[in-house]
Specification:
Strand 7 and strand 8 (about 180-185) form a beta hairpin. The chain has 14 helices and 15 strands. Helix 2 (about 30-45) packs across helix 9. The strands form two sheets. The chain has a nine-stranded mixed sheet with strand order 2-3-1-4-5-6-7-8-9, with helices on both faces. A six-stranded mixed sheet has the order 10-11-15-12-13-14, sandwiched between helices. The model has no long low-confidence stretch (mean pLDDT about 95). The longest helix has 16 residues, at about 200-215. The protein folds into two domains: about 5-230, UDP-N-acetylmuramoyl-L-alanine:D-glutamate ligase, CATH 3.40.1190.10; about 240-380, Mur ligase, C-terminal domain (Protein-Tyrosine Phosphatase, Chain A, Alpha-Beta Complex), CATH 3.90.190. By secondary structure, it is α/β, with parallel strands linked by helices. About 50% of the residues are buried.
Length: about 375
């Protein structure tokens, strides 16, 4: 066979079918890794789990993960990423999921897909390619996604805040940046849930994980325990407490417009009273023709959540600056920096006791170096 990538996928597909593990495939424009880890935590109570490691979610990484399947594994939780049409269909063919999950449709990988409609079509490949007896777990609050779902005959289980969803959240109680409590509702029953990570976007990820648990016949009491054990992921809205009651929110692993908005709104809503907010952003990549507008919107969002200082880095730093200034942020509060070292220096020069610092950018921007330098200098 001349196509080695195809051969790798075919080998992994054969190996997957030679094992008895129930397979869960998770895709979406944002939240895939967090939802994957929450799902693994939910299913890990009483089962041996195989899960995607690092960013092994593409046509090479997913087959390599499946080739790690052993007889001891009872569940496999796989992250499915894509950048162009046809990739999710092929990943579905390889993984043959028993449960497929689509978290949301948002602005990510616009370069290869051109529009939200194109992204929705690409994500919907999971619904189209999954075998008929499998179950789809879908974000019932996502109108574009549900429009695609209504055009198929697949069995579905929906999750979200809306009352029409099968799995939904009620009695939400914020614990600030320390997490959230809520009730997971299914049918006429409800169970108390506790998350150590804050934000409504994480409640959605938790609901998706609970829906998978229900789909696979797990006991809700068990997967509530699994949710409570999930402690977050480095670089994914991680809360780091520094000297001087300073809080660093490290969300540097990746970024797109949807995930940025969710994270920024969470920080703006949950930060402690009388604290100041300092924001450092890097470029969001792979947005194609939508990049200029998306980065201007990012700057506007920084002003809207009440940041007192904003540091922008990357090719689109100027657009972020323009957006913040146009929204009313003072010129003295907005600065373009050339690299991570300068961003760290500028932030440390401005930060005071009780400040909240928020950092986010696409993977290749490397903003984790800013987080690491601030932490190192704060401990000296």
């Amino acid at each position: 066979m001349d196509d080695t990538l195809r051969a790798l996928g075919d080998l992994a597909a054969w190996w997957r079918r030679a094992h008895h593990a129930k397979v869960v495939g998770i895709t979406g424009s944002s939240g895939k890794t967090t939802a994957k880890e929450m799902t693994a935590s939910v299913l890990g109570i009483g089962h041996r789990i195989l899960k995607t490691q690092r960013n092994f979610n593409n046509l090479i990484g997913l087959p390599l993960t499946l080739l790690s399947l052993e007889e001891q594994h009872e569940r496999a939780v796989l992250e499915m990423g894509m950048s162009r049409p046809g990739e999710i269909a092929r990943l579905t063919e390889i993984a043959d999921p028993d449960v497929g999950v689509i978290l949301n449709v948002g602005m990510a990988h616009m370069e290869g897909l051109l529009s939200l409609e194109g992204i929705a079509e690409a994500k919907a490949e999971l619904m189209e390619e999954i075998r008929p007896e499998a179950l789809m777990v879908l974000n019932g609050d996502d109108e574009l996604l549900m429009k695609k779902a209504n055009a198929t005959s697949r069995k579905t289980l929906t999750f979200g805040f809306g009352e029409r969803n099968d799995v939904r959240a009620g009695r939400v109680q914020s614990c600030g940046l320390n997490g959230t409590r809520f009730e997971m509702k299914y049918g006429q029953n409800s169970w108390p849930a506790e998350l150590k990570v804050p934000g409504s976007h994480n409640i959605m990820n938790a609901l998706a994980a609970c829906a998978v648990g229900i789909a696979l016949g797990e006991k809700p009491e068990k997967f509530m325990e699994g949710l409570s054990l999930f402690g977050g992921i480095k670089g994914r809205f991680g809360i780091v407490r520094l000297k001087g009651d300073i809080i660093l929110v490290d969300d540097t692993y990746n970024a797109n417009p949807s995930s940025l908005r969710a994270a920024m709104e969470t920080v703006g809503t949950l930060r402690p009273e009388r604290s100041r907010l300092i924001v450092g952003l890097g470029d969001m990549l792979e947005l194609g023709s939508a990049a200029v507008e998306a980065h201007r919107n990012a700057g506007e969002l920084v002003e809207r959540v009440g940041a007192v200082h904003f540091f922008a880095m990357g090719v689109h730093a100027r657009e972020m600056e323009q957006g913040a200034l146009a929204a009313g942020m003072p010129l003295r509060s907005v600065k373009i920096v050339q690299d991570c070292e300068e961003m760290a220096e500028k932030i440390m020069a401005e930060m005071k006791e009780r400040d909240v610092i928020f950092l986010k950018g696409s993977r290749r921007m490397g903003l984790e170096r800013v987080s690491e330098e601030i932490q190192r200098r704060n401990l000296e």
